[in-house]
Design a protein that fits this description.
This protein has 365 residues and is α+β, with helices and mostly antiparallel strands. It has 5 helices and 19 strands. The longest helix is centred in the C-terminal third of the chain and has 21 residues.
């Protein structure tokens, strides 16, 4: 199958006064995960036609949902109709390089918070799928149609060994997400995605995920034209990785993203993103309590440093309270300069010593 070349027009700012900037793409603009691989002409095969395959591609830079965007793609869902599966999902997610569960999950299941535009080619009756190929707008990693934002809407057979035009458009003014296949609108949604899905955060990554299960198809995607506003790359949250495992084992952890303005106790924006995730974890484990221990370097007097460490630990606790965590579950205190983790003789060591340690514990009954 010969695919169209990958043409990308980036940084299209719709506000008056902003110029249109164009950039020819490279395959290195995307992160490929799982079984995804380049297919010539800068197109990507997401899954080959074998069982229990999964693949995804993610654009490396984040975009803002406060600005409109228009994405023109071509997709191929395979040549097997009766025995072909499972489909693909166009995903918006705050974290980069994530792929959900395979099979009926289509690489979207388990991603939270998230928006997914699903093209589903297999009927899973327990998920409320219609018999026909269908599209739906999903939320928060759920592929069960009982939780859809829109759809499922039936579409003509798309497992026909042909490429199909796919257009995804977001109008930021009317807050409308619309999807066209071969020039015909197949589904739309009017909703404040920033407020109701992404918890007030407008910056997201985007990508395409796909999977097969007991049945399979060769599923591929090409990009003809992409117009959107790029934003700075979002930090990868430490609480999405190894640090989370350590925290859940009751160990003290230090998060590099929890930082303060120099000499003060005001949290930086990166700190608030990490603490939002910590609050979500605590809401999911309502019986657990959190120790919050503030530390400083040795610059300044011991009394000043003790006071500063107490203020910083309280700032973390106060932020978590604002996110709905009961103060009875938060134990904050400061240690000042007493317990350095690195040498105070170097600038980098002093930076490491200005830290807040966290420990999540289940109280003794």
């Amino acid at each position: 199958m010969k695919y169209l070349a990958l043409y990308t027009f980036l940084l299209y700012l719709f506000s008056p006064g902003f110029p249109l900037l164009a950039q020819m793409p490279q395959i290195t603009d995307f992160r490929l995960d799982g079984d995804a691989r380049q297919s010539g002409n800068n197109c990507i095969i997401l899954t080959p036609d074998y069982q229990w395959s999964s693949g995804s591609i993610w654009y490396k830079k984040a975009i803002s949902l406060k600005s409109s965007f228009d994405m023109q793609l071509r997709v191929m869902l395979g040549c097997k109709d009766r025995d072909g599966a499972d489909g693909m999902v166009f995903v918006f997610h705050p974290y980069a390089e994530r792929t959900g569960y395979r099979g009926e999950g289509m690489g979207f299941a388990g991603l939270n918070p998230a928006i997914g535009i699903e093209i589903d080619t297999w009927q899973n009756e327990h998920l409320g799928d219609p018999r026909e190929d269908h599209v739906a707008i999903l939320r928060d990693g759920s592929v069960n149609h009982g939780f859809n934002l829109a759809g499922p809407n039936r579409i003509p057979n798309i497992e026909d060994c042909r490429e199909h035009d796919l257009n995804i458009n977001w109008n930021a003014d009317s807050r409308t997400l619309s999807v066209r296949i071969d020039g015909k609108e197949v589904i739309s949604l009017q909703r404040d995605l920033v407020r109701t899905i992404f918890r007030g955060k407008d910056k997201v990554y985007w990508g395409v995920t796909s999977a097969t299960g007991n049945y399979n198809n060769r599923q591929a995607v090409c990009f003809e034209k992409l117009e959107f506003e790029l934003v700075e790359e979002l930090p990868t949250l430490e609480l999405q990785g190894q640090k989370l495992k350590e925290l859940m084992r009751g160990r003290f952890i230090t998060l590099d993203h929890i930082q303060f303005e120099s000499g003060g106790a005001q949290l930086t924006p990166a700190s608030r993103q990490e603490l939002d995730e910590l609050a979500r974890i605590m809401r999911a484990h309502p019986d657990m309590q959190l120790d919050i221990i503030g530390h400083t370097d040795n610059v300044g007097s011991a009394a000043t440093n003790l006071s500063l460490s107490e203020k910083r630990s309280r700032a973390v606790a106060e932020y978590l309270k604002q996110k709905g965590i009961s103060p009875k579950r938060l134990n904050s205190r400061g240690m000042g300069e007493k317990y350095p983790s690195h040498s105070n003789d170097t600038q980098s060591g002093r930076l490491r010593n200005r830290r807040v340690e966290l420990r999540l514990l289940e109280p003794i009954a």
